[in-house]
Every structure is written in structure tokens, then in C-alpha cells.
């Protein structure tokens, strides 16, 4: 049985030579994955890719609860809330890497896929191909030389390409770089006070250029994407923590809890309290 925390902790990759100083780690899910803390909602400042090959229970990601049914592949982006609820020990492989690590030499041109909390069902042939890449990643992690980081980024690029074959990313394209950078910035700074002008300044471009480019690449305006991320974060905190609506409103930059309630209802069709009750299965 999972426990909802008062506020979700953020975990980081331990800095050590075995993890490329906190940039990358791969290993068995049994030792790197669900542990004493993994049954409580938490988030990471890194990307987590999990290939589940056995076990039973549920993987809770943001507001979704997914039954574990191996073989299964999960991608959890930085900032997402997730936890495991096992009824039988979950086995498989887990790959952890920092998003900034991808930007070095050998990294993927398109960066992280535009989809998040993906749960994919690879065929046996696809699973074997993924496991071959995992084997190469493990081998490279054991070869600490001047080319190690580049080789690992190249293999991660191949791994992300394999994922796109499993679930094509509709937002992927040769010119998606600015949109991806904007979406990451919004994810990291999600707040009711965040403006398009602030984001444009942080990215070194004009608000007009940001609006035009993001509209073309993401199919939505920058303002819409900011509001959508604020809603997602509010939903995570309502569903997976014990924080009060007033506390959530304050965390998200709302000066007034009643304004937060009106904003949430306008965007979701439910009040924050009604949404939380629905997530917990409590009758109105």
C-alpha cells in the first residue's frame, strides 16, 4: 500500500565514478529500482527509463495508475511524480541519465522525446534489440576512458531512436530544438507567475519568435503550454500528496487559493477538491 507524502522528495543520481559523476547509471531494476522509498510518490531531476521483464502490481505516474504486465517499457521525465506498488517483485533493467548529459558530443539531435510517462509494449524482437543496447551501455560504463561519455551518449541516442520506433513522437522533427528547450524550461519553472516574456528572455530570443516557433513545432501557443504544465503539476500534487489546496496554490505562485480554484476549474472542469476526491475514489 503506497503512502501519500506531505510533499514529494526529489531524488538525484549519486555522484560517483560508477555513475559518470551523477550523469548516467544502468543496472538491474531489483537493485536500482523499487526500494524502501520507491513505494512513496517522488520525483527525479533525471530521466528514468525502465524495461520491466517480470513482476506484478502497479506503476503510478502522475495521475495515472498502470498495471504492471511484462514486457513493458516506461519513460519518466524529470519532475514527474511516480511510485511503485508491487504485489510481486518487479524485475528488469533501469537506465538513469541527466537531461543535460544528452547535449554533449554524440547525443541525440532531437533531445528527449516529446512524450512523457510513456508505457510501451515491445514485442519479443524489440525487447531483444533494447537489451542488446543495454548490454553495450553496461560494457561502456565499465570502460573509463576519454571516449566513454561520448560512446554512452551515442548509445543513448540509439536507445531513444528505438523508443521512437515503438511509439512515434508526433512532435519530433529536425527543427524541434527550440520547442523542446521551452517545454523543459516550463517544466522546471511551472508557476502561475511565469510569463512568455520571461521564457523568451531566458532562451535568448524575442517573445514573438518564441510564439511563432513553438506554435509551429508544438501546435500550441507558449501561454497554453505554460497553463497546461501548471495544471499538470497541480494534478500531481492533488493526487499524490497530502498538501492542502492552499499550500498547492502557494507552491504554484497563486496569491489567492480561491483564484487557484477558479483557474483549476476552468482548465479541468472540476474544483481541486473534487479532482482530489475523484482520484482517491471518494464519492462526492
UniProtKB/TrEMBL annotation:
Q: Which GO terms describe its molecular function?
A: DNA-binding transcription factor activity; sequence-specific DNA binding
Alphabetized Pfam families for the sequence = AraC_binding, HTH_18
Q: What is the lineage of its organism?
A: Bacteria, Bacillati, Actinomycetota, Actinomycetes, Micrococcales
This one is known as AraC family transcriptional regulator
The record, for InterPro entries, names: AraC-bd (IPR003313), Homeodomain-like_sf (IPR009057), HTH-like (IPR037923), HTH_AraC (IPR018060), RmlC-like_jellyroll (IPR014710), Tscrpt_reg_AraC-type_HTH (IPR020449)
Query: What are the protein's UniProt keywords?
Result: DNA-binding, Transcription, Transcription regulation
PANTHER family in the cross-refs: ARAC-FAMILY TRANSCRIPTIONAL REGULATOR, TRANSCRIPTIONAL REGULATORY PROTEIN
Biological source species: Agromyces mediolanus
- Residue ranges of domain HTH araC/xylS-type in the record: 180-278
Amino acid at each position: 500500500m503506497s503512502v501519500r507524502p506531505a510533499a514529494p522528495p526529489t531524488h538525484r543520481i549519486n555522484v560517483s565514478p560508477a555513475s559518470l559523476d551523477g550523469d548516467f547509471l544502468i543496472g538491474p531494476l531489483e537493485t536500482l529500482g523499487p526500494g524502501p522509498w520507491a513505494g512513496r510518490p517522488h520525483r527525479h531531476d533525471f530521466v528514468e527509463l525502465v524495461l520491466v521483464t517480470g513482476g506484478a502490481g502497479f506503476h503510478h505516474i502522475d495521475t495515472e495508475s498502470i498495471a504492471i504486465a511484462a514486457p513493458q517499457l516506461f519513460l519518466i521525465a524529470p519532475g514527474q511524480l511516480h511510485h511503485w506498488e508491487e504485489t510481486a517483485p518487479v524485475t528488469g533493467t533501469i537506465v538513469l541519465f541527466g537531461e543535460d548529459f544528452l547535449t554533449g558530443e554524440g547525443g541525440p539531435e532531437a533531445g528527449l522525446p516529446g512524450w512523457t510517462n510513456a508505457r510501451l509494449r515491445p514485442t519479443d524482437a524489440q525487447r531483444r534489440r533494447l537489451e542488446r543496447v543495454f548490454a553495450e551501455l553496461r560494457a561502456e560504463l565499465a570502460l573509463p576512458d576519454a571516449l566513454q561519455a561520448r560512446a554512452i551518449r551515442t548509445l543513448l541516442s540509439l536507445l531513444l531512436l528505438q523508443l521512437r520506433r515503438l511509439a512515434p513522437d508526433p512532435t519530433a522533427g529536425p527543427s524541434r530544438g527550440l520547442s523542446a528547450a521551452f517545454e523543459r524550461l516550463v517544466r522546471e519553472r511551472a508557476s502561475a507567475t511565469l510569463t512568455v516574456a520571461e521564457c523568451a528572455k531566458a532562451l535568448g530570443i524575442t517573445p514573438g519568435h518564441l510564439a511563432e516557433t513553438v506554435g509551429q513545432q508544438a501546435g500550441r501557443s507558449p501561454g497554453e503550454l505554460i497553463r497546461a504544465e501548471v495544471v499538470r503539476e497541480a494534478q500531481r500534487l492533488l493526487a499524490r500528496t497530502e498538501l492542502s489546496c492552499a499550500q498547492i496554490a502557494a507552491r504554484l505562485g497563486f496569491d489567492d487559493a480561491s483564484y487557484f480554484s477558479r483557474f483549476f476549474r476552468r482548465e479541468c472542469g472540476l474544483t481541486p477538491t473534487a479532482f482530489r476526491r475523484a482520484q482517491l475514489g471518494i464519492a462526492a
